[in-house]
Design brief:
Elements: H1 10-46, E1 48-53, H2 57-70, E2 75-80, H3 83-96, E3 103-107, H4 108-115, E4 120-121, E5 145-154, H5 167-170, E6 179-182, H6 188-194, H7 198-201, H8 204-216, E7 220-222, H9 225-234, E8 239-243, H10 245-251, E9 257-259, E10 265-275, H11 281-291, H12 294-302, E11 306-307, E12 324-326, H13 332-346
């Protein structure tokens, strides 16, 4: 091994480099600190923030408490409904010019419908640096959580060794009449999942073949994925398509559920935005900054949500190994066409 001694002349250059790096770092931190202070002061003058969304009220209460503890001069109010209902109310208020909400969040398709109406302001939280590039969006702050769909089974009736091991295993004849799912002619989440299968199966021809075989297996339909999961949990059907988060959520109360470890799982992104007619735009931005904090991510993860902040996972076995593939974004027109298409296939 050859060891070379550094020339004494290089040390002043190294020293000056370190000083310059320190000055740049201090400038960045000072700029961020100044921005935070100005935003907090403006938000405090507004004094309140109103949020519309579709997450359960209990977990939101916890996030509201942490926000108000951190910013005691700002009162938060939350109104929750299903994605369709909360979007309808927000759009009605916007069109009437009587907007009561400052912040809105839900799945990407609904968000995009509203964005095209000019209902949101572009805002990128500084906390976006803590999210991997795949979750970033040109308009919104990053996809903060993913609604992941997969195969869920009741372990009282199906042992892990007997469960399907792939997408194609799920449509084998042995499962005919034994599965459940939501109705793709009425439930957009299922229509979106079915029409995105080519992303994990390889191509459109395989997607078409798969859907035909799935229809032939005579699954029990439910109006949405929640009653489908309840059907699996009760043993009415031992296997089905549903949100993976329910394995964690219902498992807390003893439901005997597990999910199939597939190479990749499809799902929908979720975003949050400041309203373009927000009465409290600074408080809205501050709320979004808090929404992307580790504290909020851990609260959502504890509630079994698949958050996308690095290193934070729900208390579900192998959650850190799941590969998320984002489903194809769809419009209202797309859903109408897909509903008609799947009606012909599943209701023969």
């Amino acid at each position: 091994m050859v060891v070379r001694r550094l020339s004494p002349k290089i040390f002043p250059k190294i020293f000056m480099g370190l000083i310059l790096a320190s000055l740049v770092l201090n400038w960045i931190e000072g700029t961020a600190s100044g921005r935070d202070k100005a935003l907090i002061e403006a938000a405090t003058r507004e004094g309140r923030v109103t949020i519309f969304g579709s997450i359960q009220g209990d977990v939101m209460k916890s996030i509201q408490r942490s926000f108000e503890k951190k910013y005691p001069g700002i009162k938060s109010t939350y109104w929750r409904a299903s994605t369709t209902a909360v979007m309808d109310r927000a759009m009605s208020e916007f069109r009437a010019g009587k907007v009561s909400w400052d912040v809105f969040f839900t799945g990407v398709d609904a968000m995009e419908i509203m964005r095209k109406e000019g209902m949101f302001l572009k805002y990128q939280t500084p906390a976006a640096v803590n999210f991997d590039r795949q979750y970033h969006h040109d308009f919104y702050s990053p996809n903060y959580r993913s609604s992941i769909i997969g195969f869920v089974y009741n372990t009282r009736y199906i042992k892990p060794a007997e469960a399907p091991r792939s997408y194609w295993d799920y449509v084998e004849p042995k499962w005919d009449g034994k599965t459940t799912m939501s109705d793709p002619t009425a439930h957009t989440s299922m229509a979106k999942w079915l029409s995105s299968l080519h992303l994990v199966l390889g191509d459109m021809s395989k997607e078409e073949e798969y859907i035909q075989r799935l229809a032939a297996s005579r699954p029990l339909f439910h109006p949405s994925l929640t009653p489908a999961i309840q059907s699996i949990s009760s043993g009415e059907k031992p296997l089905g398509i549903g949100y993976i988060k329910y394995v964690c959520d219902l498992g807390k109360s003893g439901a005997p559920l597990d999910y199939v470890r597939l190479p990749a799982l499809l799902g929908e992104s979720n975003y949050i935005a400041v309203g373009s007619k927000a009465q409290n735009p600074n408080a809205a931005k501050l709320w979004i900054d808090h929404w992307y904090s580790r504290e909020t991510a851990e609260t959502l993860a504890e509630d079994c949500e698949f958050v996308n902040l690095r290193g934070v996972y729900p208390p579900l076995k192998d959650a850190d190994k799941i590969k998320f593939v984002e489903e194809i974004e769809r419009t209202e027109k797309d859903y109408k066409q897909l509903g008609e298409k799947y009606g012909k296939i599943f209701r023969k």
